[in-house]
């Protein structure tokens, strides 16, 4: 029979967030509802924590409740203390947070990677003689996803932060993003410059071509420009210039978006001047 766990009350100052916690604490309706609930009823549901030292405890589950209690100026909070290994703590933290609404692709990516790495270190998880399932299959099954989906999300962790943010924003879809994750960091920065300049993100076909050129060691800024200049299906015609041709007219600190905005302002000024000249000629 499982021993009943007891609830303790700890000072908030003794609690620390989970190291490299992959889930962001966002404001919104869900947080506001929880805040109002704690404000009126107090913190009822206990946090799950594990001891790091005699006076420090790491939060496994309940980060939002902890932050809200801090905002409300509370001093103590109910917790359940569990003695967990690093691998057990990671697995429990990930599982406790995956039920959230509106989880970002980046959050899933780093959470899945943390659980995958923790499981690989755990001899218990690696040993499955009854089913003879590979470690990746076991992890994917525990997450309720397929093995391929697991690895696709883990690949997102190889994207530079700016491109990963575009995935979170929905500007780059998951499958093209996976292809782009195979580009080197330098190549990804070159691509980012082109995306900002053209205000367009690569399609799956373009992402696959970029990965192919990268594999061959031929992915340069000119190649990226050429690939990104190819017209996509249902894409409106665009007028574009190689960045090198117009960069000399702008400060070195200007991004592609900065140059675009400046050009548009100059064109608007030119158009107004043309209209004034036309009126004077009448």
TrEMBL record:
Coiled coil: none annotated. One of its GO terms (biological process) is chromosome segregation. InterPro entries: Chromosome_partition/occlusion, ParB/RepB/Spo0J, ParB/Sulfiredoxin_sf, ParB_N. GO terms for molecular function: DNA binding. SMART domains: ParB. One of its GO terms (cellular component) is chromosome. Residues 8-98 form the ParB-like N-terminal domain. SUPFAM superfamilies: KorB DNA-binding domain-like, ParB/Sulfiredoxin. Pfam families: ParB_N. CDD domains: ParB_N_like. Belongs to the ParB family. This is Chromosome partitioning protein, ParB family. The lineage of its organism: Bacteria, Bacillati, Bacillota, Clostridia, Eubacteriales.
């Amino acid at each position: 029979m499982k021993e009943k766990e007891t609830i303790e009350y700890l000072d908030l100052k003794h609690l620390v967030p989970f190291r490299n916690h992959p889930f962001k604490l966002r404001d919104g309706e869900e947080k506001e509802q929880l805040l109002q609930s704690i404000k009126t009823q107090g913190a009822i549901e206990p946090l799950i924590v594990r001891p790091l030292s005699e006076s420090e405890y790491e939060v496994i589950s309940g980060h939002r409740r902890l932050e809200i209690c801090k905002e409300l100026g509370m001093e103590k909070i109910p917790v359940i203390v569990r003695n967990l290994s690093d691998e057990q703590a990671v697995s429990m933290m990930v599982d406790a947070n995956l039920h959230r609404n509106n989880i970002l692709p980046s959050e899933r990516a780093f959470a899945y990677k943390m659980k995958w790495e923790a499981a690989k270190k755990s001899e218990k998880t690696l040993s499955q003689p009854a089913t003879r399932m590979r470690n990746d299959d076991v992890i994917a099954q525990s997450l309720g996803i397929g093995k391929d989906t697991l690895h696709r999300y883990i690949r997102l962790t190889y994207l530079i932060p700016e491109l990963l943010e575009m995935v979170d924003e929905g500007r780059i879809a998951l499958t093209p993003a996976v292809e782009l994750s195979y580009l080197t960091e330098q190549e990804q920065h070159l691509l980012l410059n082109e995306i900002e300049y053209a205000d367009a993100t690569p399609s799956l076909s373009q992402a696959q071509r970029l990965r192919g050129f990268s594999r061959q060691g031929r992915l340069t800024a000119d190649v990226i420009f050429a690939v990104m200049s190819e017209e996509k299906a249902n894409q409106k015609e665009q007028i574009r210039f190689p960045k090198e041709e117009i960069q000399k007219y702008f400060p070195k600190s200007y991004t592609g978006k900065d140059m675009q905005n400046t050009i548009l302002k100059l064109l608007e000024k030119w158009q107004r001047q043309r209209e004034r000249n036309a009126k004077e000629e009448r």
